[in-house]
Amino acid sequence: MPTIDDIKDTNGQPHLAWARREGLRDHCFLCDVPLTPENRTGEDVLPKWLQRAFGLHQNARLRLLNATSLRYTAVRIPSCKTCNNEWLSKAENKVQVAFMAGYDAVVALDPDLLYAWLAKVFYGVVYREAILPRDRASGQPDPIVPPEALQDLAMFRMLLQWFRGKTTWSSLPGSVFIYRTQTVDEVGHNFDFADNVSLDCIAMRIGSTGLVAALSDWGFLRGIEPRRLMLPPDFALHPLQFREVYASVVDYEARRQFRSCYTGMFIGEGVDALVVNPCLHALTNPPYSEHTNEVWPEYLAAVTGVPPEAMREGDRARTFLLDNTGSPIVMPFGAGTGVIEIDGKVYEFPENPAIGMFASART
Length: 363
Known about the structure:
By secondary structure, the chain is α+β, with helices and mostly antiparallel strands. It has 2 domains: 1-167, no CATH class; 170-330, no CATH class. The chain is built from 10 helices and 17 strands. It has helices at 4-8, 48-53, 81-101, 103-107, 111-130, 147-152, 154-159, 220-224, 239-255, 296-304; strands at 40-44, 61-63, 69-71, 76-80, 167-169, 175-181, 191-196, 201-206, 209-214, 236-237, 261-267, 273-279, 312-313, 316-317, 337-342, 345-352, 357-358. Helix 9 crosses helix 10. The termini are far apart. 38% of the residues are buried.
């Protein structure tokens, strides 16, 4: 854990005090305490309750940045028993109860808790890749993600001290969107996970609830309420539509022109906590560059599995979210299969629960 002097030496950027690059396997990912046989444990980045609920513990795999995959059960990162069994467990129990109850209970969760939980999953996946060899078959020690990437994500590690009561914020550090999502009897098809490390975005479809978040925009995207993201609360997304929403958030973040700045204020004797506040002096006008259709259809195709040629409608990208009147498009979700008709052709997208996304289309 950084000392107050360490934090003061960061020239007004306290998160740099949490920027560890060495000893990732031998320190708690959260509090940074050295790990010993007595205090060592492992934090499941995707918690066990979620793995059991959607069959992820039965050989399902998470796709990694080097195009390989890892069993969800192996997506664990070093943690001390205090952080894992006390701070994180207490928060995880509340998240589990909400998701098992459904959409309304998730909406009612403490927004700080929901944001911190998503940030923990996002940071945890990257942390795992930072201690996992890029080429496990050859035994090369270089990790999938260079340690410098974790240094760049030190802001998240600082924010995750929220679980320990050491960090708080005046407004959410990111934009979190919550949606109803359709489900089928085959539980493995009711889960989806996607992230974009370079743009700090994450999406998780967990049963009847879907979460999509831009984790480092200080809530700006949520505040402007983009039309294609503000769907009716009673509308349940098809998995294809959920992927399109995720793609839309990534598109906004790719076009964001302002920097994520903050100010920090210490409170309490002996620095009991750090309060971070958004600093909007770097806000640009416009905040986002103009959306174009040059690469948008190709990106949508990559995210959804729809063939690129089917994603174009004239000179525009096809959408599965809203019709010409602005009303949501109803797309029933079959048991393990997404079906759409495009230009008279019927495309089926067999769900692949191992990676949580659509496989290649067939006609």
